[in-house]
TrEMBL record, chain A:
InterPro entries on file: Metalloenz_LuxS/M16, MPP/UQCRC_Complex, Pept_M16_N, Peptidase_M16_C
Domain Peptidase M16 C-terminal: 181-362
Organism: Salimicrobium halophilum
Protein name (Swiss-Prot/TrEMBL): Predicted Zn-dependent peptidase
SUPFAM superfamilies given in the database record: LuxS/MPP-like metallohydrolase (SSF63411)
GO molecular function term, any single one: metal ion binding
Domain Peptidase M16 N-terminal: 62-150
Tree of life domain: Bacteria
Pfam families (UniProt xref): Peptidase_M16 (PF00675), Peptidase_M16_C (PF05193)
Record-linked Gene3D superfamilies: Metalloenzyme, LuxS/M16 peptidase-like
TrEMBL record, chain B:
Annotated TM spans: none
Species, as recorded: Salimicrobium halophilum
GO function terms (MF aspect): metal ion binding
Start and end residues of each Peptidase M16 C-terminal domain: 185-359
Domain of life: Bacteria
One Pfam family this sequence matches: Peptidase_M16_C
Name of the protein in question: Predicted Zn-dependent peptidase
Amino acid sequence: MKRREFKHINETIYEEKMDNGLQVFLLSKPEMVKTYGIFTTNYGSIDQTFTPLGKDEEVTVPEGIAHFLEHKLFEKEDRDVFQDFTKLGASANAFTSFTKTAYLFSATSHIYENVKTLVDFVQDPYFSEESVEKEKGIISQEIRMYDDQPDWRGFFGTIGSLYHKHPVKIDIAGTVDSIQNITKDDLYTCYETFYHPSNMVLFIAGNIDAEEMMAYVRENQNNKTFPEAPEINRRFPREPVSAFKSEDAIEMAVSTPKAYVGMKEKVKDLSGEELLRSELFADMLLDYYFSTSGKYYDELYQGGLIDDSFHFETEWEREFGFTILGGDSRDPEAFLKRLKTMMHTLRKESIGDEDFARMKRKKIGEFMRALNSLEFIANQYTHYHMLGINLFDVLPVIESLKKEEMEAFIENWIQESQMTTFQVKPKQ
Amino acid sequence: MKIAKQYTEEMKGYRLHVLPSNKYKTISIVVKLKAALSKETITKRALLPNVLQKATSSYPSSRKLQGALEDLYGTALSADAAKKGESHILTFRMEVVNDRYLKEEGSLLEKALQILNEVLYHPKEEEGGFLPSIFQREKDTLKQRIHSVKDDKMSYANIRLMDHMCEGEAYGVHAHGHLEDLEDLSNEDLFSYYKELVESDDMDVYVTGDVSQKEVEDLSREYFSRDGLQASGEGWKASDKQVEASREIIEHEEMSQGKLHIGFRTHTLFGEDDYYPLQVFNGIFGGFPSSKLFMNVREKHSLAYYAASRFESHKGLLFVFSGIDPNDYDQAKSIILDQKKAIENGEFTEGEVEESKQQIVHQLKETMEHPYGLVEILYHQQLSGKKITADEIFDRLERVTKEDVVQIAKKIQLDTIYFLTSKEKGDS
């Protein structure tokens, strides 16, 4: 077990790679009442085409299968795992993203039993034809729920308009049609390939003794056997740098139109730290111009082109990256035109030293606030670890950012060919 | 375990609650302003938080105010309005990084409180009103928000259920205000109401973080003191009514999933003897993923992705909500009502009672560990006038018997079944 101290924020991380390849991180915070555990596999909705463990032939599985598998892992031959956590006074949950599937609990008692429940249920699948069929009804309703949410449709519509063929454009839960094709055997294929301990990270944070907890997890893992696993061969279609469409729209029953600008980010060949620095710059710049203190936000807001539903996000992953800005607008055409112009003029703007210092201070404060949350630490530590970055190095990295470096970033950032617009129009 | 070390002081025109804790890297300040819920004032009260957050006398524009907050390491400021029972509460929240994690001179807390003082007491004034541009812009924004309520089908169904169920009761007013009152509202009217509110609303200030009582008291004296009377702190006692006959209402919108929302009357308020059995009942009925609603509507019959219940503590209401296929209305409705009937008939185990208690205790401990969560719990107590320690709460829960749960289940009355569904039956 290795111990890494981060003095500037007064935190210590304990880490160990188990013999079977499972990476474990522990954060002991005895002043907290709660303990939070999250068990994550490096497997999400984009991992559709791969070579299954022990096979030579590549397969492509139905859309939405990673999310389907997440649902089905909770069901065992004789019980529902939610009940196990309930009996231990804990709450449990799970989520699937583009790149990850994670299972988690939060507990204020029976910590060891809860850790065991988490690790054991994820490492012991039980899929049957009957239960797979039953789940299709539940997930269909989950998909329909999202279908009725205009924000969700706007977000995925924008991504769909950005990407030609990369599976990031597929809805994480799939479609009502695509999930009908999922079989028990598909689930086992995905499970065996992607839920191997060497592809997973366990993070436990809170009221724990690190030494004892690590020994507990080690023993649990030593009592299980897994086949040898070579590195997973995943394949992604070759994706052009440019956006798929320059504009797109859907119609649905909304009272206020929604409009978005999307931009594809260039992530190819970036190292972990480069990815982090780019993400930080993109986020700080968007914040500088488009948060409530930003001059572009101010202009759009004063001009009545946006309201307080306006937001932006930027996501940087190994395989893809995108930035999306938008929200409700009474005049979507004028809004999109102005917003796109702003994205271009942004490249020519200069930012003073004082403003740059303020941008950094804001980012530092935001980060410190987030560290209050065990969930944030565990989730983000895992996320960054999978990208080859250490979460607690983010603070010194922010401090080290230079204005000249940001200017170089901007120079290379926004290109017309990588942008798209997307509208959710009220049905006539 | 104590709910928290808490010092409450009667100050000049408000109550100060200091909650020292070393768990956080930030200090959180919450200001609560309370008045009776009424149709007369609700629209003004819904608009005020947005206007006050936009400009103060020293920071006369949104950009200047946000810029000042950013200088303080991105101190977060937010404000909202909500109803709790038949009281209406404006909440201002501020979170500032604790100096000791920063290489910074001077008290960030004091600088942050200066800004909060400005926001509350010194809005930018012009000719007996707020800045006209801000007033107009915020009025338009609120108008648009009220229009857009329909776009979020889950909230819209909640509002419609309340419209029908609490028609003629104070609780039936809309927390975001009413369009007809907004149209007629002038800047001067809003400003004079603000003057009245800031003197006569009942005010509580909470400060949590690694702070000393003395330091916070001194700063509060400087920044929160006001003229005006301070009331007892209790909320307005909500009206209750016996249901003579339950109602069933079906409405249609363009949507693919139907929203089934059911309202009950619990005749039970926060801190009353029956409040503890009510919580246990809710846990068995629909509060958790192990509850009867989830297990039957979702797991057994695959009718929904979500099926849950929650209760309102200061009006005495309980709601069930589920998203279902429009064709499954009758089946889902009867399964839901059957689950309540089953509890009335004692068809549940002692084990379910114990599990429900454990879940509630866990949830409470978890909420108390979050600074804003803790403040909300303490404020519930303030509103109900029933001070109780965490140990007493746990003890009262522990003493709840299976028979108590049966009794409360019988006491809870079905009031309104509301179904918001697609325009054509069977089109999905």
